[in-house]
Design brief:
Blueprint lengths: L8 E8 L8 H12 L7 E7 L7 E7 L2 H4 L5 H10 L4 E7 L9 H6 L4 E3 L8 E9 L2 H10 L9 H19 L8 H11 L2 E9 L4 E5 L8 E4 L3 E5 L2 H6 L4 E4 L4 E6 L2 E6 L7 E2 H7 L5 E2 L2 E2 H13 L12 E5 L5 H11 L2 E2 L3 E3 L10 H10 L1 E3 L1 H4 L3 E6 L6 H12 L4 E6 L29 H9 L3 E4 L2 H8 L6 E2 L1 H4 L5 H9 L2
Parallel strand pairs: 14-24, 17-18, 17-21, 21-22, 22-23
Antiparallel strand pairs: 1-4, 1-10, 2-3, 2-4, 5-6, 6-7, 7-8, 8-12, 9-10, 9-11, 12-13, 15-16, 19-20
Helix pairs in contact: 5-6, 6-7, 10-11, 10-16
Length: about 500
């Protein structure tokens, strides 16, 4: 179930076309973009703003907590004070759940809140950055930096990136006779050749330049848009919609975008076979975001319809059967499933709070499962429930929900998954448990029967791989399916998997 999966982060950027004076529009829009990315990371959030007219060219506000908590959104006076203090002409934002550097110490966790800022006396060497993804060659990069005399204050990918960006910038300036800031596309190209894995990056320089780039495989989406007032960058298209930007397009894999006083410049620096994470469409992205011009909600509805065509109970279905989605990503799939089979549909399970259990440890997950889910007995009692969900990982939440449905009077509970069995870890920014924790490794012969027995379901049925690919409408060769197939699209990703056996 998606609730048990940890995601990477959400990143954003805003650059005003009028750079003549600082404006509260920058932090206000960044906070709004962070709110739209809240589902991608609920541990911490922050913004870093460029203000050449203030005491410091780069100003940050960041902390552990939800966007509403960190920016005091429910306290208008405090919120206004924060926004006024972060007025500027450009900036970047971030929401985070850590996929590396996971530690329980509060001060250590606070030290890892993004955006990171690299301080330096020369504006051309001073910058902030926010990172989304996971580096599969992190250990090698870490050891190399240590060997060059760098000291790491954290164990997160973002600091590795920050040091390499600073290192390549310095090297390029040493080569340049003028000693000026180098062409940042050249610096990014060096980084792309060095790094293995998934990464979306936004960076704000103290000379006013905004930089963004996406890894050559394009594991996770990154969008660029503009209106009459600003350029903006976001992990999801719906975030851009929310700040009044209707004109946008996806940043291509291996492409970098630079925005400064000369305007917008784009350059594709590396071309590799695209491998978009299929789970972005299945679960992580907001339903009102778009991929390949198609709304994610429509993709999920297709997943449900495709799953229904393979329904094992066909021929036995009657009015006692009720289709119920596990909230919230599975709602469109459940609608499609019910419509395809002509079954009744009910939102009989709800969430008391819009929290995702995947961002927490085992104890916190138990607390969430016992308090967040609400089941409406009037809909359930005396019915045979077909429970639709996107995926199953450990099986903890599925087991709890099935038990609760039975307590509320369900005669039968059948679990249907729009995702094929997840059998392998992900090294590209989605933090699945270890291979031995994955419930899909329970059996090699009668997997669906074994899982049904373990979680207390009357039956379990998974979407086929072909069915999922067909429903998403994206060519199989353009998708990362590593967690399903065990075949990883990058060298270090496959190396980590082979060593993880």
């Amino acid at each position: 179930m998606g609730d048990e999966i940890k995601e990477e982060c959400g990143v954003s950027g805003v650059y005003l076309k009028d750079q003549s004076k600082p404006s509260t529009e920058v932090p206000f829009n960044l906070v709004h973009l962070n709110l739209r990315h809240q589902h991608r990371g609920q541990r911490s959030t922050g913004i870093n703003v460029y203000n050449p007219y203030g005491n410091s060219p780069l100003v940050s506000h960041k902390d552990l907590g939800l966007v509403s908590e960190v920016f005091k959104i429910r306290n208008r006076e405090e919120f206004d004070r924060i926004i006024m203090g972060c007025a500027g002409t450009a900036g970047i934002g971030h929401t985070r759940y850590s996929t590396s550097g996971k530690r329980k110490d509060y001060e250590a966790m606070k030290n890892e809140v993004q955006p990171f800022e690299r301080r330096h006396g020369r504006l051309s060497k001073r910058f902030s950055l926010a990172f989304n993804g996971n580096l599969t060659n992190y250990e090698e990069l870490y050891d190399e930096l240590k060997g060059m005399g760098f000291w790491m204050d954290t164990k997160v990918d973002t600091e590795i990136l920050m040091h390499y960006m600073a290192f390549y910038t310095k090297k390029s300036m040493e080569i340049s006779q003028e000693g000026n800031k180098p062409e940042m596309f050249d610096v990014v190209e060096k980084i792309m050749k060095k790094f293995d894995g998934a990464y979306n990056v936004v960076s704000m320089f103290a000379d006013g330049e905004l930089l963004a780039f996406r890894d050559p495989r394009g594991f996770h989406p990154l969008f660029l848009g503009e209106n009459e007032k600003m350029y903006a960058i976001a992990s999801e298209s719906s975030a851009l919609d929310s700040i009044g930007i209707e004109k946008y397009e996806i940043i291509l894999p291996g492409e970098a975008v630079k925005i400064n006083g000369n305007g917008l410049e784009r350059k594709r620096l590396m071309i590799e076979p695209e491998r978009l994470c299929h789970f972005e469409a299945v679960y992580f992205m907001r339903a009102d975001s778009k991929l390949n011009g198609l709304e994610v909600r429509a993709m999920r509805n297709n997943l449900g319809r495709r799953l229904a065509r393979e329904e094992p109970l066909r021929g036995r279905l009657d009015n006692e059967y009720l289709v119920v989605p596990a909230p919230k990503a599975a709602i469109p799939a459940a609608e499609g499933f019910a419509n395809e089979l002509g079954l009744k549909y009910s939102m009989a399970i709800d969430k008391a709070e819009d929290l995702r259990g995947f961002i927490n440890d085992s104890e916190e997950r138990k607390d969430i499962m016992s308090t967040v889910y609400i089941i409406y007995e009037s809909d359930i009692r005396g019915k045979k429930i077909i429970l639709i969900d996107d995926s199953i990982v450990r099986g903890e939440t599925s087991k709890q929900l099935i038990s609760d449905l039975r307590k509320k009077g369900a005669l039968e509970v059948h679990l249907r998954l729009t995702e094929p069995p997840i059998k392998h870890p992900c090294w590209y920014g989605i933090d699945y448990p270890t291979r031995k924790e994955l419930i899909a490794n329970l059996s090699k012969e009668n997997l669906e029967e074994e899982i049904a027995k373990t979680i207390g379901a009357d039956s379990v049925h998974f979407q086929t791989l072909d069915g999922m690919v067909e429903a998403l409408g994206i060519p199989r060769d353009n998708l990362c399916l590593a967690c399903l197939t065990g075949k990883y699209p990058t060298h270090h990703g496959q190396k980590k998997a082979d060593n993880h056996q």
